[in-house]
Amino acid sequence: MIKLKIVHKGRKAKKYYGGRKNKIVIEERLLMTLEYWKDYSSYRVIAKRYNISNTSCICNIFWIENILIKSGIFNLPGKKRFNKK
């Protein structure tokens, strides 16, 4: 639920600048990204599932990942934390 709210905020920010409408609704784009993270199947397989091009699949997954990273909730700790002895 939290992820979907974050993604909707990101979509509103992107929509402010205009552009073409996406063929895939936002919920399916989030689901596509979660499927990619879970199985690490190729973009081609995921694109075929959603009946979109390979490039469109890559762009959608990267867009969702960037929004989740920018939210600050899904960041991993940096290298310095792991290098401490």
Alpha-beta content class: mainly alpha
Residue share in β-strands: under 5%
The total of helices stands at 5
Annotation, overall tally of beta strands:
0
Radius of gyration: 15 Å
The gross shape turns out to be globular
N-to-C CA distance: 38 Å
Q: Roughly what percent helix?
A: over 70%
Describe this structure in words.
By secondary structure, this protein is mainly alpha-helical. The protein has a domain at 24-72. It has 5 helices and no strands. The longest helix is centred in the last third of the chain and has 18 residues, at 54-71.
What's the arrangement of secondary structure elements?
Elements: H1 2-16, H2 26-39, H3 43-50, H4 54-71, H5 79-83
Task: Write a compact overview of the structure shown.
The protein has five helices and no strands. It has a domain at 24-72. Helices cover 71% and strands 0% of the residues.
Which tags fit this structure?
85 residues, mainly alpha, 5 helices, 71% helix
